[in-house]
Write a structure and sequence with these properties.
heterodimer; A: 86 residues; mainly alpha; 3 helices; 3% strand; flat; B: 603 residues; 3 domains; two-stranded antiparallel sheet
């Protein structure tokens, strides 16, 4: 069961992995701002020239998908499990 | 063509027909041999037109082989092989026969060169695949199967109507690209027939309804064949039909929203079929083949169908394993299972990363083609909205499923926890092969790109911009997931979809009939009984009495009289000549006397 031990190893050191994750978030934005690494000459829209544009887009999209979906669900779409068994 | 051409579908049909007679010890070998032979057959197919059979006034073409049919045939038979391996321990042979007939129907559509042959196999798919739902045996699956069948029968009728109208207008049944710039009613009817199978809203509700209720390995087949065969039909028949662009984008978003709400893991995956097929449908809509972006879009639609079969079936295998082992698929009743099912967790996670288009996984090399085509066609809203939908994919499949089944809070009942374990070897092996293929396709792009219809491929997914964009979107989506995880927590509910109208509509109709129509019917029945049936019974009884006592009395009396007379005659008639002679003379005398009397009276 080595795989379970590996997962437990990560779970027990979750704070370390979270720091690595936050560092990765910063890193992808920084790298996106360096033209030598990320060549934006042929991007399709002007907004993509903004460093970290897709980071903001991704985060807002995540917020919208979760909150709008849940709002839609609670507007009457989500019903009890036996709804069709009356 | 007089030479025999071995249709790959024929192998599945013949293999399925022989399967019941295969001895038990060879059963598993046979189950692997047939799809393996079919896969080899598709690999070695050469382009051309084969198996042309005259039928009435037409020539039906069962073997049209070109770049488009080759790439779909390749992935379908590969999927059939790995899907059969996944369920090889299923002892009920009829389940394998149903699955193979379904696969054969899909291959029949893919290699059909005319609309009649296409329709024949199209219907075969519907009628064989429903058994993959019914075989689960629960009342819910039986009902879902009937709904699935009725919806597909409706779609088939619409498609047939379109085909007939198209033939009436063009005098041709050839299955080639229709004139999408000047669509007719026939074009729209054919489109409706195709997009119903592609699960385009509002014609999509059959998919989460049925796929969530199918057997654990039935869903693995179902997720691969119906929608992707429909995508093939759209690629072949309606490339560049602009109506498909908004429909595809709506699909991608619609599926993502419902997947976010889903509490059942397989229903979540079913909604992500809708979402992912949305990319393909949008790609077909963008495919104006006179433009470079149009060719990229059609290549992207084919590539995404190819990769989606790999990672979607992997996800269904993972969640199917959980269902198979624990008999539970709801997030609110699972959690913490990595201890009991670690390999299933890892392999399902690979499926989640692949469908989310993580770099070096299969989805990355295909989804980006369609998004890029959207931007290059200067329809920026298409590109942005498809990226927005991709965050929904990542949230649901790569984060929500692994977290709420394997990592999050343990909500398992004792029974579920005790039953949980990694599944049998063949299920693990099938998932491992699929995972390897997801990574292989994502890293070695020529394998897939060299098969695509429009060559040469000038698109390169692994550019710095593309990788940067994808990593930013995915990593910041992951950040959002963990920040908003409480909001996302699954709830013990179902989400109403457009099937509400025919499910509740059916119930309301039944209620209306029971409460409104039936009392009227009962009243009419009472009137009929009182005013019609009872007098009828009375008159029948009277006629019976009359018949018994009067008619039968006369007849019986006459018969009795004849009998008595006969008895007396029998006594008189003893066969003595002299007595007879005397009687004759006596009779003659009597008659003569009577005659004389009558004459006298007459004078």
């Amino acid at each position: 069961m080595k795989l379970v031990e590996l997962i437990d190893f990560i779970r027990m050191r979750i704070h370390i992995f979270l720091r690595i994750f936050y560092a990765a978030l910063v890193l992808v934005v920084i790298v996106d701002a360096i033209p030598i690494i990320v060549d934006k000459e042929h991007v399709h829209t002007s907004v993509e020239h903004l460093p970290g544009f897709w980071s903001i887009f991704g985060f807002i999209s995540c917020y919208l998908v979760i909150y709008l979906s849940k709002w839609y669900g609670h507007a009457g779409i989500m019903q009890r499990e036996d709804f069709y068994h009356e | 063509m007089s030479n025999f051409w071995l249709h790959p579908a024929l192998l599945f049909f013949i293999g399925g027909a022989i399967l019941p007679f295969i001895p038990e010890r060879f059963r598993k070998w046979w189950l692997l041999l047939i799809p393996a032979l079919a896969f080899l057959r598709t690999i070695f197919l050469t382009s051309g037109t084969f198996a042309e059979i005259p039928f009435l006034d037409w020539t039906l073409t069962f073997g049209r082989v070109d770049n488009l049919s080759l790439v779909f045939g390749h992935i379908m038979t590969l999927m059939a092989l790995i899907g059969t391996l996944y369920g090889i321990h299923v002892e009920r042979r009829v389940e394998h026969i149903a699955a193979w007939t379904y696969v054969g129907g899909s291959l029949g559509v893919i290699y059909a060169g005319d609309l009649l042959a296409l329709f024949l196999f199209w219907e075969l798919m519907a009628f064989s695949s429903v058994f993959l739902v019914w075989f689960r045996g629960s009342p819910e699956s039986i009902a879902a199967g009937y709904r699935y069948l009725l919806v597909h029968i409706f779609g088939g009728i619409v498609l047939l109507a379109g085909i007939l109208m198209h033939y009436e207008a063009t005098q041709s049944i050839a299955f080639i690209a229709l004139d999408v710039k000047n669509p007719t009613v026939a074009t729209y009817l054919i489109m409706i027939g195709f997009i119903l199978n592609a699960a385009v809203p509002p014609l999509h509700a059959w998919l989460p309804d049925a796929y969530g209720e199918a057997t654990f390995n039935g869903s693995v087949f179902l997720c691969a064949f119906t929608t992707k065969t429909a995508v093939y039909a759209l690629c072949r028949g309606l490339p560049g039909m602009e109506l498909l662009i908004p429909l595809g984008v709506i699909m991608a978003l619609y599926g993502a929203v419902y997947a976010t709400l889903a509490n059942d893991s397989r229903r979540l995956l079913a909604y992500h079929i809708v979402s992912q097929v949305g990319y393909m449908v949008a790609g077909v809509g963008l495919a104006d083949l006179n433009t470079s972006f149009g060719q990229l879009a059609l290549n992207g639609a084919c590539a995404h169908a190819f990769t989606n079969i790999l990672h979607k079936s992997l996800l269904f295998m993972g969640c199917g394993s959980v269902l198979h082992m624990t008999n539970e698929s709801r997030f609110t009743r699972l959690g913490g299972l990595y201890v009991k099912m670690p390999w299933t967790f890892l392999l399902t996670l690979i499926g989640g990363l692949s469908i989310s288009a993580f770099p070096f996984f299969s989805g990355f090399v295909s989804k980006s083609m369609i998004v890029t085509a959207g931007f290059e066609s200067h329809r920026l809203w298409v590109g942005f909205l498809l990226v927005l939908a991709s965050t929904g994919t990542f949230i649901s499949t790569a984060l929500k499923i692994p977290y709420f089944i394997w990592l999050g809070k343990n909500n398992c009942s004792t029974e579920v926890w005790e039953r949980a374990a990694d599944p049998v070897w063949n299920m693990r092996l099938a998932m491992a092969i699929m995972s390897a293929l997801c990574i292989f396709v994502g890293t070695y792009t020529p394998y897939l790109y060299d098969m695509l219809p429009f060559q040469p491929i000038e698109y390169h997914p692994y550019t710095s911009v593309q990788i940067s964009e994808t990593l930013q979107v995915l990593l910041f989506t992951a950040l959002g997931f963990f920040l908003f995880i409480k909001k996302l927590s699954p709830e013990s509910v179902i989400s109403l979809d457009v099937d509400y109208f025919y499910r509740k509509g059916g119930q309301k109709f039944l209620q209306f009939v029971t409460q409104r129509i039936q009392p009227v019917d009962n009243f009419v029945e009472q009137i009929y009984k009182i005013g019609g049936l009872n007098p009828l019974k009375f008159s029948a009884r009277a006629i019976g009495l009359f018949d018994n006592h009067v008619i039968d009395g006369i007849v019986d009396g006459f018969a009795g009289g004849v009998l008595i007379l006969g008895d007396r005659l029998r006594v008189i008639q003893r066969g003595l000549l002299h007595e007879n002679l005397l009687l004759a003379i006596f009779t003659i005398v009597i008659i003569a006397l009577l005659w004389q009397v009558l004459c006298w009276l007459g004078c």
